Amino acid sequence: MLIYWFLLLFPFLMIITDHNKIYTFGKFNIFTSSNFAWVSFFFILVITIGLRHQIGPDWYNYENMLGVAREGNFIKSIKFSDPGYMLLNIIGAKWGGLYLVNTFAALIFSYGLIRFCNRQLNPWLAILVAVPYLVNVVAMSYTRQSASIGFIFLGLIALADKKYFKFILLILLASSFHKSAIILLPLVIVSETLNGSIFKTFIIFLFVIFIYIIQGEYFINTIKFYSEQNLNSIGDIVRLSMTLIPSIIFIIFFKNFNLDSYQGKLWMLYSLSGFGLVLLLIFSSASAWVDRLGLFWIPLQIFILSRLPNIFKPGVSKFIITIIIISSYLAVAFVWLFYGQNTKHFLPYKSLLLT
Question: What confidence tens digit (pLDDT) does each residue in 69-96 have?
Answer without folding.
Answer: 999 888 999 988 889 999 999 999 999 9
